[in-house]
Write a structure and sequence with these properties.
It is a single chain. Helix 1 packs across helix 3. The longest helix is centred in the first third of the chain and has 30 residues. The chain has 304 residues and is an alpha/beta fold. The radius of gyration is 33 Å and the shape is rod-shaped. The strands form 3 sheets. The protein has a 5-stranded mixed beta sheet with strand order 4-3-5-12-6, with helices on both faces. It has a 5-stranded mixed beta sheet with strand order 9-8-10-7-11, with helices on both faces. The chain has a two-stranded antiparallel ribbon with strand order 1-2.
């Protein structure tokens, strides 16, 4: 486009009203400014766009051709403004969240349920990855926010504490009874059982391995999984001892389906929360979500 937009806006107003005076009033500029702009536009294009008379101005054949395109352009802009205003009034937007499948099911869903209820026009995309992968997606700007265990180094990200979680080891009563029958004492259960852990790419696994090494607990047999719910299911059928999060097996501990393995030194509790980049301009949807979770307390439903 060789001409600036304001020149076409003046041309459009003059053509639509058919009068220089009316165009000047519509645009809140002087009549001489209107005439000068049209003259310059005609000189730059190389043809007459208007014929002038005492009654006003009329488009030439060339002017009619140009006007058809200019009108379409300004109609499109007006339509875009209307759509934008509608989107803003409805709260239309999109939010990309990164979270592990475990935290998604047990922690994120209650927040999402109420947020979607309050903001039905914001679409949600969820990338179910480990904490380490979620942090990488955040660093690469592929997600807006993540729900993770608190990283050791926050660097360029902001962490909003959500709650504290506690890792424990569990097994069935029969599995523990069989270990006891083989002469294995409580303090040696982890060393002589099939230990079921999250896979090595998971931050939880790295945290537990550090605990085991610090306490000189060397695992002989192990099963890895990327799904904590699968580890819980394995433990419930007596495959071995699973490392799980206490709050996620409340029902099983309460009804005796699973028994907590006593530890001489408990595993230190961890913080879980939402993370987002400090220096990135936040979208309206992200701002709304951050404001929401900071002021929302999910209703905890006790397992029956």
């Amino acid at each position: 486009m060789n001409q600036n937009l304001s020149a076409y806006r003046i041309f459009y107003a003059a053509a639509s009203t058919g009068n220089i005076s009316k165009a000047a009033k519509e645009l809140y500029i002087s009549q001489p400014a209107i005439s000068k702009s049209i003259q310059k536009l005609e000189e730059n294009i190389g043809c007459k766009l208007f014929t002038r008379s005492s009654k006003g101005v009329a488009l030439t054949e060339e002017g009619v051709l140009l006007y058809s395109y200019v009108k379409h352009a300004f109609d499109t802009l007006s339509s875009g403004e209307e759509k934008l205003q509608q989107a803003l009034s409805l709260g239309v937007g999109h939010l990309n969240i990164g979270v592990s499948s475990t935290l998604c099911k047990h922690l994120l869903l209650p927040y999402l349920k109420e947020f979607i209820k309050q903001n039905p026009h914001i679409s949600i995309s969820i990338a179910c990855q480990s904490t380490n992968e979620t942090l990488k997606l955040l660093d690469d700007n592929q997600i807006d926010i993540g729900l993770v265990g608190k990283p050791d180094h926050l660097r360029t990200i902001h962490f909003d504490y959500l709650e504290e979680i506690e890792d424990i080891f569990v097994a069935t009563r029969d599995y523990l009874r069989n270990l006891k029958a083989r002469g294995i004492t409580k303090s040696h259960i982890l060393k002589h059982s099939t230990l079921m852990l999250l896979d090595k790419n998971n931050m939880t696994r790295q945290y537990i391995e550090n605990y085991l090494q610090t306490n000189h607990i060397f695992v002989q047999d192990s099963i890895d999984s990327s799904d904590l719910d699968l580890l819980i299911a394995f433990a419930k059928i007596g495959v071995g001892v699973a490392c799980v999060i206490r709050s996620f097996v409340k029902k099983e501990l309460s009804d005796g389906t699973l028994i907590e393995i006593p530890l001489e030194i408990p595993i230190p509790k961890r913080e879980v929360g939402f993370v987002y980049k400090n220096q990135t301009t936040q979208t309206r949807s992200l701002e709304q979500f951050i404001s929401f979770y900071k002021n929302y307390t999910p209703v905890v439903q006790e397992s029956k």
